[in-house]
Design a protein that fits this description.
The structure is a single chain. The protein is mainly α and about 160 residues long. The protein has one domain (about 1-160). The chain contains nine helices and five strands, in the order ααββααββαααβαα. A three-stranded antiparallel β-sheet has the order 2-1-5. The protein has a two-stranded antiparallel sheet with strand order 3-4. β1 and β2 (about 45-50) form a beta hairpin. α2 runs parallel beside α6. It is globular, with a radius of gyration of 15 Å. The two termini are about 30 Å apart. About 35% of the residues are buried.
Amino acid sequence: MLYVANRLRYPTFHSVSKVLYFADREHLSRYGSLLSGDSYVAMRHGPMPSAIYNLLKAAGGPQEPLIPPQFYELVGQALRVDGKHRVGPLRQANPALLSKSRRESLNASIKTNGRLSFERLTVKSRDAAWKSVDENDLIDVKAIAKTLPNAKEVLAYLEE
C-alpha cells in the first residue's frame, strides 16, 4: 500500500485498491500467484482487497470496532486516510522489501492505471471475475485467472 500510495499523484482508497488489483492480476499472469496474498471481495465499485481495505480503514483512525487496536499504531506510522478517503503516505516505502516480481507488477499497474479516474478504474475492474459473484462475496482466484490472456496456463498451474 505504501509503495503504491507514494507513486500515485492523488492516492485514495479506490485508486490504491484498484492499482493493487491490477498488479495482482499481472503477478498472477506472470508468476502464478497474487502478489498481495489478499482475498478480493466484489464491492459496488469493483474488486476490493479485503485485508488491505481493513488496513486502510485503520489508517483513518480508531473508529472501526472490528479492527484490532494494534493495527492503528502500525498503519498509523505509514499512512493516514482522511474523511474523503484520500491516502497520505507518511514516509517513503522501502522497495528493497519487495521482490523484483512484485515491484515489476506494481510498477506496470501504476503506469497503466495510476492516472485513471475513479469511474474508469471502476469500469475497468468490473471484469468477469467481479461479475462471477454477488456483491460482498469473495472472488475466487480461479475466477481472476480466467480473465487473463494466458488463463489456460495459469489455471493449469493453479491446479497443480
